[in-house]
Amino acid sequence: MVADIHLIPATESDQLAPPHPINQAFLAFLTGPAKAADQLIIMGDLFEVWLGDDISMAFYQREIDAIAQLSRQGTDIYIGLGNRDFLIGNDLLKACQAKGLFDDIIALEHKQQPAILLMHGDSLCTNDKAYQRMRFWLQQTWIKGLLRRLPKIWRLKLAQQLREKSTTANQHKTWDIMDVSDEALKQLWQKFPDSPYLIHGHTHRPGHHYYATKKQRWVLGDWQADGASYVTIDHGQPSLSRFNYPI
């Protein structure tokens, strides 16, 4: 499992130039550890920004082709929506040859083992009231449909405004506000009482957390030019690992 890669888009003028360092690290991961996996689950924010399949696919063609190649080699690909790329649609799914697209949460089952919960994680940051209000509206199906129909120039302008607003707002927020809340975790595990493990991203604070209730939580970090953390599952047991680039 990986999350928060935040791939940087290539412009029309630099399609033949070397990829951004973060993109290079992810491409190396796809031809490295990911090749040994039965499944690669990308849990949101694969892209730094996604304005809709009709616009954004052209700016990430190298990375899309690499994911599709991994799929052809036998690794099943699943893509989750994040707060940066919530407008991903079926065209990208087909281009990546991915098996499925999921929104907020999935319960991964392995034989007779209890299900492992996977999610991007932003819905758990309930102390950030302003963000949750914005997220509520952006997750509405009719809002997504409306955004996808806007002219390209309008979508570009709106994406820039949202990024600037988010950056400004986050400068005045503490980590406690932007991190996962205890109450959200409590409610999640009440909904899935038989699931002992949760894996998510979004907060960019990689770690492994234990709770008195015998629950465990793994958090994936965001990608940098020198690599990132990822989670593997072997016989139903998650483990946090590190991919270093260059190797």
UniProtKB/TrEMBL annotation:
Binding site for Mn(2+) 1: D4, H6, D45, H204
Subcellular location: Cell inner membrane
Position of the signal peptide: none
Alphabetized UniProt keyword annotations: Cell inner membrane, Cell membrane, Hydrolase, Lipid A biosynthesis, Lipid biosynthesis, Lipid metabolism, Manganese, Membrane, Metal-binding
GO BP annotations listed: lipid A biosynthetic process
Pathway it works in: Glycolipid biosynthesis; lipid IV(A) biosynthesis; lipid IV(A) from (3R)-3-hydroxytetradecanoyl-[acyl-carrier-protein] and UDP-N-acetyl-alpha-D-glucosamine: step 4/6
Record carries keyword Protein biosynthesis: no
Chief location: membrane
Family: Belongs to the LpxH family.
Name of the protein in its database record: UDP-2,3-diacylglucosamine hydrolase
Organism from which the protein derives: Thiomicrospira cyclica (strain DSM 14477 / JCM 11371 / ALM1)
Lineage: Bacteria, Pseudomonadati, Pseudomonadota, Gammaproteobacteria, Thiotrichales
Gene from which the chain derives: lpxH
